[in-house]
Amino acid sequence: MKILLITPAVEHLRVTLPDRVPRRAMLRFSLLPLSTVAALTPPGHAVELCDENVTPIPWDTDADLIGISFMTALAPRAYEIAAAFRRRGKRTVAGGYHPTFLPAEAADHFDAVVIGDAEELWPQVVSDAAQGRVQRFYRHRQPADLAQTPIPRRDLLRPTARYYATTDAVQVGRGCTHGCRYCSVTAFHSRTYRARPLAHVLAELRQVGRDMMFVDDNIIADRDYARSLFTALIPLRKRWVSQCSLEIADDPELLRLARRAGCIGLFIGIENTDRRNLEAMDKGFNARHDPADRLRRIHRAGIGVIAGIIVGLDHDERDVFQHTLRFLLRNRIEALQLNILTPLPGTPLFDDFERAGRITDHDWSHYTFRRVVIRPARMPAADLQAGADWLYRQFYRLDHVLARCLRVGLRMGPAAAWVCFRLNRTYRYDIHHERIRGYNPAPAAEAGVAEPWPAVATTAVRIQ
């Protein structure tokens, strides 16, 4: 049997001609979910991968089984693709976050739905499909054993490897023990963290190049494991980036180990500059210490920071955008991933907003974190959209980009500066490609009044 595994793309990034791939390789990472599913496929079956971000969908494929993995914003496109292949007589299977959270919805468009991790389930799907039948739902009786996770089929990515920041992406563990209300990772893994056996991870690391990344959602979720991993990494002389919480700054030993192990950059969810918002999102662990001090410690260790920021939380007013920009520039953030508050299905935040009648748009294709789909608490939706666009564009102004790349070069060397420049240039490409402009909605009288990290009480305020 032949199997085609697909990652859909949003419309403005979708590739329909092979030689017209958008120039945003730095924001594309290895297709780890699909290449892992490919490795889970039992012997005797041919597997192909298709990432619609870099290659057109082969509609005339002779594949017998079509697997599509997708997040919420890509659900409508995934349903279109599935419908087109079903009309061609192909059997279709859905997997990923959105089908796990809304399996009944996905089942209306697919022949089968895999709920949760693919380990232990995918081989059964393939076996059933080979016999000419599939079940409607495949689900775990207990969490998948990550000791069974194979090394991904990176060989399937060679034809398109040049379109990615790297195809050497490794996953150590899955999940996070924090309970952030907006987080689909926490919801998907039921607020648990599971790590692969360290020996398995090290065996995989010996097969990848020097420059690589860990795609974990919080690589320090298990600090003892992280210490063992970082210690074992030191003699391998890798250079890598990953993602973790600000809490790494509170553990000097772990921070030093990360740098000695080759860490040059971390994506960190700072999320917001108002402690009340962090408490309301059950992210109080970010509010216990001054983030500026934590960020200084990370920078002093020689590690760059890509900041995750959310705007549109319930204590955000129209001046949040200028205050956030000031915070980011003062704290010398190397890159910014800006998100407009978006309640994803399956999260407590979605349930909060749904009950309150504050979700104004149920078109999943708009759930890209770049469009307003809610009724904000303290500003009009138009101001939230305009302010987010303004902040995004201002942070990636050319003078700001050049200044931060020079600073990175002086602190970390020319190689790090080049990576910083490429990443910032890619975000600027997106801004111009999508014609993002916006405006600062803060009244002129409020400009520059408040500090970005006000000393406020940390009383939890639930979103209602």
How does this structure look, described?
- The chain has 464 residues and is an alpha/beta fold.
- The protein has two domains: 2-146, Rossmann fold, CATH 3.40.50.280; 168-446, Alpha-Beta Horseshoe (pyruvate-formate lyase- activating enzyme), CATH 3.80.30.
- The chain has 16 helices and 14 strands.
- It has helices at residues 32-40, 75-87, 97-101, 103-107, 122-130, 184-188, 198-205, 223-233, 252-260, 275-280, 291-300, 320-330, 348-356, 381-395, 398-412, 414-433, and strands at residues 2-7, 46-51, 65-69, 91-95, 112-115, 137-139, 169-170, 173-175, 193-195, 211-214, 239-244, 263-271, 304-311, 335-340.
- It has a six-stranded parallel β-sheet, sandwiched between helices.
- α1 links the parallel β1 and β2.
- α15 packs antiparallel against α16 (414-433).
- The longest helix is centred in the last third of the chain and has 20 residues, at 414-433.
- The chain starts with a strand and ends in a 31-residue tail after the last helix.
